[in-house]
Each structure stands twice: as structure tokens, then as C-alpha cells.
Amino acid sequence: MHAGKIYIIDYEYGSYNYQGYDIANHFNEHVGFECDYSFWGGKADVLYFSQRLTLILWHINVTICARYPNKEKQFHFFRHYLQPGNLKKLYVECNFDSLVSHMYWAIHAIVHCKEEVLSLTHNYLASGRI
């Protein structure tokens, strides 16, 4: 690390991305996921689909929206770590790319879970217990 510079490196999925995307992904990951399943009386694997959906929507509204850095905090980050020429342009780019980051990781999750879910569904339907 060089004095006065920040390097955002995602070692797990490192690749070249646009500046706004990397920063937006950092903001998204900064939010985190701390889910309290005890609210539902147990673990997520025993929840009905409607309960899971409610839990996810609650998490998005309460946790993510509350923790995602607002405009003031984003500008603070930009000024102190990046010193960009056009703060508003970077702000707009990061907020747009925040959605792109969410879409990327949603697709990533689908791709990695697809075989397990399809296998489970196939086995259930093949058992004749519908």
C-alpha cells in the first residue's frame, strides 16, 4: 500500500471492473447480512416460502437500507480516499452500479445453486408425492 492511496481488491473474485462498480460493490458488502432467525423460531431451512420472503423483504427494508451509506457518507469516502474531480458523477455512477452489483451476485447465486435445487425438485417430483 502506498501512502495516501486505497486499493480495493476482491481476492475471491478479482477482475478488472469500472471504478464505480468496485466502489458500489464495496458499499453493498459494507452493509453485510446479520439475520436473526430466532425471530422466526428456528433456522431458515424450516421456514415456509412466504416466511422466507417476508424475512428477506424485512432484511432489505430494515438492515440494508439503514446501513447503506447515504450521500453524505459516500461523498466523505470519495473525498478522503479517492479525491475525484467530479463528485456528483462518481456518486451517480456508484449508485447505478450498486444495482448492477446486486444483479451480478444474484445471478452468481442462481448459477451456483441451480443443480442442487433442480436435483431436489426432480427427486421430489419423481417420488410421486405431490
Automatic annotation (TrEMBL):
Similarity annotation: Belongs to the choline/ethanolamine kinase family.
Organism: Sphagnum jensenii
Superkingdom of origin: Eukaryota
Residues annotated as signal peptide: none
Family annotation (InterPro entries): Kinase-like_dom_sf
Pathway the protein takes part in: Phospholipid metabolism; phosphatidylethanolamine biosynthesis; phosphatidylethanolamine from ethanolamine: step 1/3
PANTHER family: CHOLINE/ETHANOALAMINE KINASE (PTHR22603), ETHANOLAMINE KINASE (PTHR22603:SF66)
Pfam families named in the record: Choline_kinase
Protein name: ethanolamine kinase
EC number: 2.7.1.82
